[in-house]
Amino acid sequence: MRTPTSAVARKSVLAVAGAAALAISSFAAAAPAGAAPTVYSKGGTSWVRACDTLAKGDTVSCHALKVVNTPQQLSPNAMPSGLGPSDLLSAYKLPANGGAGMTIAIVDAYDDPNAESDMNAYRAQFGLPSCTTANGCFKKVNETGGTKYPRANSGWAGEISLDLDMVSAIAPNAHVILVEASTANMTDLGASVNTAVKLGAKFVSNSYGGAESSSDLNYDNTYFNHPGVAITVSAGDSAYGAQYPASSPNVTAVGGTALHRDSSARGWSESVWSTSSTEGTGSGCSAYEPKPTWQKDTGCSHRTVSDVSAVADPATGVAVYQTYGGSGWAVYGGTSASSPIIAGVYALAGTPSASIPAADGYSHTSALNDVTTGSNGTCSPSYLCTAGAGYDGPTGNGTPNGLAAFTG
């Protein structure tokens, strides 16, 4: 890092240090094997982290939060709780029945044996077209593109169901590729991103992350250097602090909001998702990553997280159908919801024209819902953790308001 020569630069150093410390501490807080998951609560809603326990060798965690005080219903025909496709399309002014001709990839770790059937139960419930291996819409592969899948994991199965259901909700006519990494570390997950692009995906959602490190610059070039591909990454669920790969300048970093119906002209309102000092949407100033040319905020000399955002608060969570590690209909939150939502929005907008599609949002800020309330921590300068008019760390430039901000 260059020696700071101004007050802004000195603030940037503090922001970098704080972000790195928080990312490391929150990542290290993953539960040891066999420990009961921590239960979080807000406004009468309680949830757990789906990937609260890391398997041996894992270095990143998924960002899915599973609500535990909403009764699960196994029947696919039961009335699910949580936001459904029509809610999300309404909140973000998105066209229905979109995505035709596009291919969206989901990258996750481990196997969900019921991924295809569960996704299609979700689709059937909401009147969306089926997406199966048989009709050519769905493909499930391992990290090298083969069909020898990794071992199953019930926590990551919840993540997989959440991801598949969100891209189904937003872009139901897109083809879907699920790439399952052998383990939850950056080498395997990064190889899975490369496989997704090799198989033709122009939109790749990643809902996982961990502490930043000096190795990230190499990972950027090895795994995330795919010009013309919209790679979305969840900003994290551990409140203020930058995580990787959301901090890569090659991706669209996706923050999280709380989404409520209201009586406004829009019909919805949003604020920064924050539950406590240790849980909420991630944001912050990267300790290692260079600042992309299209990012103009002045309080961080490195890459700032996030770029855009969408619903993530489990207290305003989304409906998900999961039977491996679940009992049917459930409600999920976390920035694991916002990342596939934004990947779906990119798919609705069509094949990206920008080398790094995240840049488009910075030149079309008026086509986003500016989120101006809420905070996910304490920081300096304050915009890195507190929403306000214009760009801020927790919500980036805002949430989708149609498709204009996601096109060239």
- Main sheet: strands, sense, barrel: 8 strands, mixed
Tally of DSSP β-strands: 21
Number of H- or I-type helical stretches: 8
Uncertain spans: 1-29
Quote the distance from N terminus to C terminus.
Answer: 33 Å
CATH topology: Rossmann fold
By helix and strand content, what is the structural category?
Answer: alpha/beta
Average pLDDT, all residues: 91
Organism: Streptomyces rubellomurinus (strain ATCC 31215)
Signal peptide: 1-30
Protein name: Peptidase S8
GO molecular function: serine-type endopeptidase activity; tripeptidyl-peptidase activity
Give an overview in words:
- Residues 1-30 form the signal peptide.
- GO terms for molecular function: serine-type endopeptidase activity; tripeptidyl-peptidase activity.
- This is Peptidase S8.
- The chain is an alpha/beta fold.
- It has a single domain (7-406), classed as Rossmann fold (3-Layer(aba) Sandwich).
- The chain is 24% helix and 24% strand.
- It is built from eight helices and 21 strands.
- The strands form five sheets. Strands 5, 6, 7, 8, 10, 12, 13 and 17 form an eight-stranded mixed beta sheet that branches.
- Strand 1 and strand 2 (45-49) form a beta hairpin.
